[in-house]
Design brief:
single chain, alpha/beta, 2 domains, ten-stranded mixed sheet, two-stranded antiparallel sheet, about 30% helix, about 20% strand, globular
Length: about 325
C-alpha cells in the first residue's frame, strides 16, 4: 500500500491505545496491511426501527457490513481473527425471523475469503422481552436473549489458545480429579457416547475446564465507572453497550500481550478498556464524537479531568495526529 499521510481525529489516548473519531472505512485503509491481530466488534444491528446509534436498514445491511469485512481482511495478519457480535431481528410486520446475520456470514466467507472458525452464542439472562409486538402484545414468540457471534479467521489454523479462557471446574469434576477411582473403575471404560474414560486423560488437573461456545454473560451493569460518571454529569450514555466479558473472552483466547486489537464500531469503547486491562495495544474507531467523548470516562476516574476531556472532544477540539500507514504500524507493533 502507498504510504500516505492523513490526519485522524484522536479523541484520547492511553499507554496502550487510542480512541479515534472517524469513519472506520477510511481509518482502516490507512493502517498497514497484515498488521492487526484481532478485530472484535459489535456493529449496529439491522433492526427495522431506526435507532439513535445509526443502524442500517435490513435490506442494505449485508452489503454495508461486508464492505468493512473486505478491508478488515486486508489488514488482519494471516493468523488473525475477526469477531462480530451480531444480534437477530424479525422481518417487517410479521413474526418471521430475519436471515440477515446468516447472509452476512455467507458473504464474508464465500466472497471475502474468511473461514468460520466457530460460531459462538452469547446468552444475556437479563434481556428484556423483545420484540414487543410478538412477545409482549400478541404473545406469539419467546423473548430473544441470545446473540450470534461469528468468529472468523483468514487461516483455518489461526492463533488461538483455549487454555487462556478456562472456566472453574464443577464440583463433580473437582471430586473426579481428587478421587478418580470413585468414578473410573476400569481403565479404558467406554461410555455409551463412545468416549473412552481413562485416569490419565480425564482426571488431570489442567487448571480449569474448557469453555463451551455458549457465553452466558448478563448485560446489566449498573454501577461501572462509565455509568457513574455519565449519571453524575448528566451525560447520555451509549444505548447499546455490550458487556466487558465479551471482548475480554476473545482477546484472551485470540491474542497475546502487546498484540494489536481493533474495534471498528467503538461505541462506548468496551473493547478498548478490555484490551487496556489485558496489556494489548488497541485502536477504537467511532463515527460519533459524542460517544468518543463519553467513552473517556472508562479511563479517567477523576471527574474533573474526565469532564475537561469530554468538553474538549464534544466541542471538536480533537488531538490532531499526523499518522502515516508506516508510522501507525511501527507505533502498534
Amino acid at each position: 500500500m502507498m504510504d500516505h499521510q492523513f490526519y485522524s481525529h484522536a479523541g484520547y489516548s492511553t499507554e496502550n491505545g487510542m480512541c479515534v473519531c472517524g469513519d472506520s472505512l477510511e481509518l482502516l485503509t490507512n493502517l498497514q496491511d497484515e498488521s492487526i491481530d484481532l478485530v472484535v466488534t459489535s456493529p449496529p444491528f439491522a433492526l427495522q426501527r431506526q435507532k439513535e446509534y445509526g443502524n442500517e436498514k435490513q435490506e442494505e445491511y449485508v452489503n454495508w457490513l461486508c464492505e468493512f469485512g473486505k478491508i478488515v481482511y486486508q489488514k488482519l495478519k494471516n493468523n488473525g481473527s475477526f469477531v462480530i457480535d451480531i444480534g437477530g431481528a424479525y422481518e417487517k410486520g410479521v413474526p418471521v425471523y430475519s436471515l440477515y446475520q446468516f447472509r452476512v456470514l455467507l458473504q464474508l466467507c464465500d466472497e471475502v475469503g474468511f473461514f468460520l472458525a466457530q460460531p459462538f452464542y452469547w446468552h444475556n439472562p437479563s434481556a428484556l422481552p423483545a420484540p414487543i409486538e410478538w412477545v409482549n402484545k400478541r404473545k406469539l414468540r419467546a423473548k430473544s436473549s441470545v446473540n450470534t457471534i461469528w468468529w472468523l479467521c483468514k487461516s483455518p489454523f489461526c492463533k488461538a489458545d483455549v487454555t487462556q479462557v478456562l472456566t472453574p471446574y464443577s464440583k463433580r469434576m473437582r471430586r473426579l480429579i481428587s478421587n478418580p477411582e470413585d468414578f473410573i473403575k476400569h481403565e479404558g471404560t467406554v461410555r455409551p457416547s463412545g468416549h473412552v474414560l481413562g485416569k490419565t486423560s480425564w482426571c488431570n488437573d489442567n487448571g480449569g475446564a474448557i469453555p463451551s461456545n455458549l457465553l452466558q454473560i448478563s448485560n446489566s451493569e449498573s454501577n461501572s465507572q462509565y455509568l457513574r460518571i455519565c449519571k453524575k454529569l448528566g451525560i447520555k450514555m451509549h444505548p447499546a453497550r455490550f458487556p466487558h466479558g465479551i471482548p475480554e473472552f476473545f482477546i484472551k483466547l485470540l491474542t497475546r500481550e502487546n498484540d494489536l486489537v481493533v474495534d471498528i464500531f467503538g461505541g462506548s469503547n468496551t473493547t478498548g478498556m478490555a484490551a487496556e486491562k489485558l496489556n494489548r495495544k488497541w485502536l477504537s474507531f467511532e463515527l460519533s464524537n459524542e460517544y468518543v467523548a463519553s467513552s473517556v470516562f472508562r479511563f479517567e476516574s477523576n471527574i474533573i479531568l474526565a469532564k475537561e476531556d469530554y468538553d474538549r472532544i464534544i466541542n471538536g477540539a480533537f488531538v490532531e495526529l499526523p499518522i502515516s500507514s508506516n508510522q501507525m504500524k511501527l507505533q502498534y507493533d
